[in-house]
Write a structure and sequence with these properties.
The chain is α/β, with parallel strands linked by helices. It has 2 domains: about 230 residues, Spore Coat Polysaccharide Biosynthesis Protein SpsA, Chain A (Alpha-Beta Complex), CATH 3.90.550.10; about 130 residues, Hexapeptide repeat proteins (UDP N-Acetylglucosamine Acyltransferase, domain 1). Helices cover about 20% and strands about 30% of the residues. It is built from 6 helices and 33 strands. The strands form 7 sheets. The chain has an 8-stranded parallel β-sheet with strand order 14-16-19-22-25-28-31-33. The chain has a 7-stranded mixed β-sheet with strand order 5-4-1-6-11-8-12, sandwiched between helices. It has a 6-stranded parallel β-sheet with strand order 15-18-21-24-27-30, with no helix packed on it. It is elongated, with a radius of gyration of 22 Å. The N and C termini lie far apart (about 45 Å).
Length: about 375
Amino acid sequence: MKAIILAGGFATRLRPLTLTKPKPLLPILDRPLLDWILDSLARAGIKDAILSVRYLSNIIKEQYKKRNDLNLNLYYAEEPWPLGDAGPIRFIYERFGLDETFLVIYGDIFTDINFKQVVDYHKERGSLATLVLAKVEDPSRYGVVILDENYKIVQFIEKPPRGRAPSNLVNAGIYIFEPEVLKYIPDKYPSKLARDVIPKLVRDKVVYGYKHDGLWSDIGVPEDYLRANICALQMFHPNGFIASNSEIPENVDIINPVFIGSNVKIGVESIIGPNTILCNNIRVGNYTRIENSIVFSNTIIEDAAVIQGSIIGEGCHISKWVRIETDSVMGDSTIVDENIYIARKTIVLPFKEINESIFKEGQVIL
């Protein structure tokens, strides 16, 4: 069985993080999101995974070029131009062939779903197509479905107005298709599953829904991405995790759950956590406070800094006495000078130096 992973989008809503990294390589607990997806596919017995790539595809290919521990065969379909999320399926069919049941997965989904169970469910019902569904608090951002008593999808509404969705069951971005679904995909590019394919399948009464009640999150915007990391931390390491080669003095206050990756050094009397992820090769100074945040690899945070509810990119330098307020995002290689205050919801693009405080919320520093 083949699995198609859609990994070619620009991920504009996740900028500045995706100006330097493709979205599928953003870390979840210090592992690329794509690693989590590939591992789940291998556990389900999937032998071949085809990545539909375009934006920053060279980085993805380089990441996996020398990996021999994937337990599946990895192939690439380089989109010649943006093909949408249905177009790559036809493109891959023309290049690789799709002559048996196949999976389609969005490359920005973090989930603990058992793919084998979903495929078995699909085959038991003799379905032409099966959509994995998740429950969310705000369905207005997703495709919403209504099921009948047999779990057949009888209605599909893409991004209904807030407060007017007929259910909170949404398209989770995971599909099981039979080859016959290809006749529903337009032969023109680009094309969209939610616009061009799923409504036709619903109309012909050939699509079922599979309710997934476990871990599921997309990482479409920075808030979602941070939340996905915290959910993973709470699920997999509720009592915290500290790599054996990291250096944590006894007088550092660790408030679990926290995830501290390899080769991290933390200064005296700092407070880390709760809900905090420090990736590899990070240096944290003395008397520093970090909570509800993720800090990417190779970043330096000096003495007496305070970081709350924020994302700090790779290779950043946060100087002494800096305070970064909630929902801020620092792009890769950002430098923040001493005694700087950064207000809530500040976005800083990569390779910037911040030498003046930012007091107005929601600023974007270009």
